[in-house]
């Protein structure tokens, strides 16, 4: 009897493929093993998702597995099943899901050799060496960190914000010597830790009482209220049971300070997975968790797919953060997958945030999640006062009102720091000719080109097209070009003019793209000297700036009035997160918000009552209109070289579905808010249902039909379940 196995193959088809398993392979097939298989004219790496598959096709018509790439399964059964579940849930090809769950190194048949990491410790004869010069403070600080930690690898040192230029002289000078990889010895039990306040204590007790069971918690506490301390303590209980913990953090939320805190509390126990690592490093860290050499994994979105030897606790920090949702291809939510994994592994899942998503608040209201609140800032700091600045009829100086400039002057005079927030990088979002009205539009998108003054460049922030900054109007050749509205680059220049005596530090994608530059800017700020910070939402994540006492929000109106019903939720979260960067125990913070609509009810609720009442109000509105998270939705998107092409496909897809009834509805095809992007025209169908099962049934049919429909060659289409935007 010939044997068949079913293989998940990385291809756009929504199914597994059967292959013949020859005795000559010399092994028993097992679910989760990687195999090399012929697929059309190519050879691909796939993963076995079923053994002993039955098949009616004569075996001489079947293709055979060419080679087995693993001794034992690379993906454990629970992850193969998770991949299959997610393929169903997100209506995405299973082969692509399974492939994305693998580290890049394992997606190829030929594997790179693992290089063991070299660890460094303080040298024994450090006392005999000449002391480091007083001016080498980076090196002194690194030496102190290594002394505290015992030993660190080059990678860990880099993650902590120290470049090779700081490390190498210490090695060459003999201050450091080679060390063995650290072994966890339970020393975390004896590390110094703060005494928990009563709210923290209640949270830790509630979580640790459920270890060994599936349960879901929402830890709701403002920035600085001690959430991380709660995670650390719960992890300690988890490790004491001999289990491992997964901690998910947003894309740019992993700061050296956070990492250092985990490292110091749990020496030799922590692995990281994030975009700053090389493929080889990611693979090594993946293995350390799989083999249980390390107990704690701190990682971004895709870390949710790491195989654990014995997973006992999952934490999702800043659970509202949009970076948990993959925004192309397989549009999964790592937060939601984390909850599913908790159920698979029978362990508690803790979602933490200062600004919980409406999804999670709704789950609390439905008694699905248990709410744990931290109302006080640990260490006794009070929440900043928020004031609205009505800028209607006020003349603005490059976007800044006189009140905000005056407040900045007072802040600097008092020896403190100010933070000016505008979620728009570049010099100006729009270039226009004052004479003929010409606008610098992107040739490939329905969008304006952004002016980058320092680089003398126009750049489209949607497709990355660029052009040199014109000095005369290309249409009428006049010189009167005007820059409409500010971006962070313009604010920086303007603030430098107003405050020549203090440093103005800009933090956005343009100033932090070089490796390590973010850290050196943050180090400057953390010296505590008076300065002005200007930046985008990069300022709103991860870092805490204790000497900032003034936060100025230049423009938030756009988000509050966005066409997407999720706009106010997102803007409110961003606003509260930015405001939360300010102030500590002995320094009270103030937040000024410039607005053209000070009476806006959402803004009023946010300012007068805080995030929770604001969110409750938004949730009530969603209830009223039966919008998610009260109902469930999905978007089917299509893009093509013409809008008609994209719309015609969606029109046919819609026509072949049953008409919506009271249990579900379908809207569209609608052109996407930015219809043309990177030269492609985009349209969408929106499906909504009161029950998830109804939505999935319709999506299942839609995918089946969509796959069958004949399409123009250039058409692409995709499904987005639980979308976070239109
Ligand atoms: P969050 O994660 O909510 O921002 P953290 O856990 O980082 O809060 O706590 C903020 C600061 O307060 C940290 O410096 C932390 O060490 C300190 N802290 C946390 N809990 C306590 C406590 N119970 N007593 C004293 N300090 C604490
Ligand atoms: Zn002109
Ligand atoms: Zn563009």
From TrEMBL:
<feature type="binding site">
    <location>
        <position position="463"/>
    </location>
    <ligand>
        <name>Zn(2+) 2</name>
    </ligand>
</feature>
<dbReference type="InterPro" id="IPR042115">
    <property type="entry name" value="PriA_3primeBD_sf"/>
</dbReference>
<feature type="domain" description="Helicase C-terminal">
    <location>
        <begin position="468"/>
        <end position="622"/>
    </location>
</feature>
<keyword id="KW-0479">Metal-binding</keyword>
<dbReference type="InterPro" id="IPR027417">
    <property type="entry name" value="P-loop_NTPase"/>
</dbReference>
<keyword id="KW-0413">Isomerase</keyword>
<feature type="binding site">
    <location>
        <position position="436"/>
    </location>
    <ligand>
        <name>Zn(2+) 1</name>
    </ligand>
</feature>
<keyword id="KW-0235">DNA replication</keyword>
<keyword id="KW-0067">ATP-binding</keyword>
<keyword id="KW-0347">Helicase</keyword>
<feature type="binding site">
    <location>
        <position position="442"/>
    </location>
    <ligand>
        <name>Zn(2+) 2</name>
    </ligand>
</feature>
<keyword id="KW-0547">Nucleotide-binding</keyword>
<comment type="subunit">
    <text>Component of the replication restart primosome.</text>
</comment>
<feature type="binding site">
    <location>
        <position position="460"/>
    </location>
    <ligand>
        <name>Zn(2+) 2</name>
    </ligand>
</feature>
<keyword id="KW-0862">Zinc</keyword>
<keyword id="KW-0639">Primosome</keyword>
<dbReference type="Pfam" id="PF00270">
    <property type="entry name" value="DEAD"/>
</dbReference>
<keyword id="KW-0238">DNA-binding</keyword>
<keyword id="KW-0378">Hydrolase</keyword>
<feature type="binding site">
    <location>
        <position position="476"/>
    </location>
    <ligand>
        <name>Zn(2+) 1</name>
    </ligand>
</feature>
<dbReference type="Pfam" id="PF18319">
    <property type="entry name" value="Zn_ribbon_PriA"/>
</dbReference>
<feature type="domain" description="Helicase ATP-binding">
    <location>
        <begin position="208"/>
        <end position="374"/>
    </location>
</feature>
<dbReference type="Pfam" id="PF00271">
    <property type="entry name" value="Helicase_C"/>
</dbReference>
<dbReference type="GO" id="GO:0016787">
    <property type="term" value="F:hydrolase activity"/>
</dbReference>
<dbReference type="InterPro" id="IPR041236">
    <property type="entry name" value="PriA_C"/>
</dbReference>
<feature type="binding site">
    <location>
        <position position="473"/>
    </location>
    <ligand>
        <name>Zn(2+) 1</name>
    </ligand>
</feature>
<comment type="function">
    <text>Initiates the restart of stalled replication forks, which reloads the replicative helicase on sites other than the origin of replication. Recognizes and binds to abandoned replication forks and remodels them to uncover a helicase loading site. Promotes assembly of the primosome at these replication forks.</text>
</comment>
<dbReference type="Pfam" id="PF18074">
    <property type="entry name" value="PriA_C"/>
</dbReference>
<dbReference type="InterPro" id="IPR014001">
    <property type="entry name" value="Helicase_ATP-bd"/>
</dbReference>
<dbReference type="InterPro" id="IPR040498">
    <property type="entry name" value="PriA_CRR"/>
</dbReference>
<comment type="similarity">
    <text>Belongs to the helicase family. PriA subfamily.</text>
</comment>
<dbReference type="InterPro" id="IPR001650">
    <property type="entry name" value="Helicase_C-like"/>
</dbReference>
<protein>
    <recommendedName>
        <fullName>Replication restart protein PriA</fullName>
        <ecNumber>5.6.2.4</ecNumber>
    </recommendedName>
</protein>
<dbReference type="Pfam" id="PF17764">
    <property type="entry name" value="PriA_3primeBD"/>
</dbReference>
<feature type="binding site">
    <location>
        <position position="433"/>
    </location>
    <ligand>
        <name>Zn(2+) 1</name>
    </ligand>
</feature>
<dbReference type="InterPro" id="IPR041222">
    <property type="entry name" value="PriA_3primeBD"/>
</dbReference>
<dbReference type="InterPro" id="IPR005259">
    <property type="entry name" value="PriA"/>
</dbReference>
<feature type="binding site">
    <location>
        <position position="445"/>
    </location>
    <ligand>
        <name>Zn(2+) 2</name>
    </ligand>
</feature>
<dbReference type="InterPro" id="IPR011545">
    <property type="entry name" value="DEAD/DEAH_box_helicase_dom"/>
</dbReference>
């Amino acid at each position: 009897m010939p044997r068949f196995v079913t293989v998940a193959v990385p291809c756009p088809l929504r199914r597994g493929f059967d292959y013949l398993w020859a005795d000559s392979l010399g092994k028993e097939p097992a679910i989760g093993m990687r195999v090399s298989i012929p697929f059309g004219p190519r050879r691909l790496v796939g993963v076995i998702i079923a053994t002993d598959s039955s098949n009616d096709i004569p075996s001489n018509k079947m293709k055979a597995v060419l080679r087995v790439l693993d001794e034992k399964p690379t993906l454990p059964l629970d992850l193969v099943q998770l991949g299959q579940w997610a393929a169903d849930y997100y209506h995405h090809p299973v082969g692509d899901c399974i492939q994305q769950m693998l580290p890049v190194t394992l997606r190829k048949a030929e594997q790179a050799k693992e290089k063991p990491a070299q660890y460094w410790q303080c040298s024994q004869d450090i006392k005999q060496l000449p002391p480091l010069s007083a001016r080498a403070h980076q090196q002194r600080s690194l030496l102190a960190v290594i002394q505290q930690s015992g030993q660190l690898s080059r990678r860990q040192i880099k993650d902590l914000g120290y470049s090779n230029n700081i490390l190498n002289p210490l090695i060459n000078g003999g201050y450091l010597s080679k060390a063995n990889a650290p072994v966890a010895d339970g020393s975390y039990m004896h590390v110094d830790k703060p005494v928990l306040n009563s709210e923290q204590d209640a949270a830790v007790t509630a979580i640790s009482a459920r270890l060994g069971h599936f349960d879901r918690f929402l830890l709701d506490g403002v920035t600085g209220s001690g959430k991380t301390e709660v995670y650390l303590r719960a992890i300690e209980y988890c490790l004491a049971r001999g289990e491992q913990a997964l901690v998910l953090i947003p894309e740019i939320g992993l700061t050296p300070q956070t990492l250092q805190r985990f490292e110091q509390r749990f020496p030799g126990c922590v692995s990281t997975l994030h975009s700053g690592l090389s493929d080889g490093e990611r693979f090594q860290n993946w293995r350390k968790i799989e083999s249980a050499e390390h107990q704690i994994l701190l990682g971004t979105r895709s870390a949710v797919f790491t195989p654990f030897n014995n997973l006992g606790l999952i934490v999702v920090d800043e659970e509202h953060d949009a970076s948990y949702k993959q925004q192309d291809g397989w549009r999964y939510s790592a937060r939601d997958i984390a909850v599913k994994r908790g159920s698979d592994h029978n362990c508690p899942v803790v979602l933490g945030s200062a600004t919980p998503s409406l999804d999670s608040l709704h789950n609390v209201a439905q008694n699905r999640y248990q709410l744990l609140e931290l109302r006080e800032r640990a260490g006794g700091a009070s929440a900043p006062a928020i004031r609205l600045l009505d800028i209607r009829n006020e003349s603005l100086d490059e976007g800044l009102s006189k009140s905000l400039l005056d407040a900045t002057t007072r802040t600097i005079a008092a020896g403190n720091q100010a933070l000016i927030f505008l979620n728009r990088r570049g010099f100006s979002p729009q270039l226009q000719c004052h004479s003929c009205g010409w606008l610098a539009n992107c040739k490939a998108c329905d969008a304006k080109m952004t002016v980058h003054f320092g680089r003398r460049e126009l750049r489209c922030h949607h497709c990355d097209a660029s052009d040199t900054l014109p000095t005369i109007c290309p249409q009428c050749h006049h010189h009167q070009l005007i820059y409409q509205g500010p971006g962070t680059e313009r604010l920086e220049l303007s603030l430098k003019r107003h405050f020549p005596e203090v440093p103005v530090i800009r933090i956005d994608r343009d100033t932090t793209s070089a490796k390590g530059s973010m850290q050196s800017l943050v180090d400057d700020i953390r010296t505590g000297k008076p300065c002005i910070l200007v930046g985008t939402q990069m300022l709103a994540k991860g870092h805490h700036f204790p000497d900032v006492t003034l936060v100025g929000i230049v423009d938030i109106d756009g988000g509050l009035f966005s066409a997407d019903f999720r706009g106010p939720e997102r803007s409110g979260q961003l606003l509260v997160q930015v405001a939360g960067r300010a102030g500590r125990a002995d320094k009270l913070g103030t937040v000024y918000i410039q607005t053209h609509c000070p009476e806006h009810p959402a803004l009023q609720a946010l300012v007068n009552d805080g995030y929770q009442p604001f969110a409750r109000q938004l949730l009530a509105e969603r209830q009223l209109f039966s919008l998610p998270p009260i109902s469930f939705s999905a978007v089917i998107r299509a893009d093509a070289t013409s809008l008609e092409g994209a719309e015609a496909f969606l029109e046919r897809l819609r026509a072949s579905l049953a008409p919506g009834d009271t249990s579900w509805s379908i809207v569209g095809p609608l052109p996407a808010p930015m219809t043309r992007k990177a030269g492609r025209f985009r349209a969408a169908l929106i499906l909504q249902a009161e029950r998830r099962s109804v939505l999935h049934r319709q999506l299942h049919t839609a995918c089946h039909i969509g796959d069958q429909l004949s399409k123009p060659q250039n058409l692409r289409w995709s499904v987005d379940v639980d979308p976070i935007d239109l």
